[in-house]
Specification:
By secondary structure, this protein is of the alpha+beta class. The protein has a single domain, classed as Roll (Ubiquitin-like (UB roll)). It has one helix and three strands; from the N terminus they run ββαβ. It has a three-stranded antiparallel sheet. The chain starts with a strand and ends with a strand. Strand 1 and strand 2 form a beta hairpin.
Amino acid sequence: MSTYTVRGSFPARDGPQQFEKEVEAPNEDVATERVYSNFGSQHNLKRTQISIDEVAA
């Protein structure tokens, strides 16, 4: 599996919060899904609230 770097933002109390997360996944789509899943469970966010700007290998 490759390591992908996912960059984006989500709404926080003080305005948009930028993030950069490294995820191991077989492809970019799975990496994106894992970020949605992790941020949704950790920060109680919906997928529509998470904005992914870039997925790089």
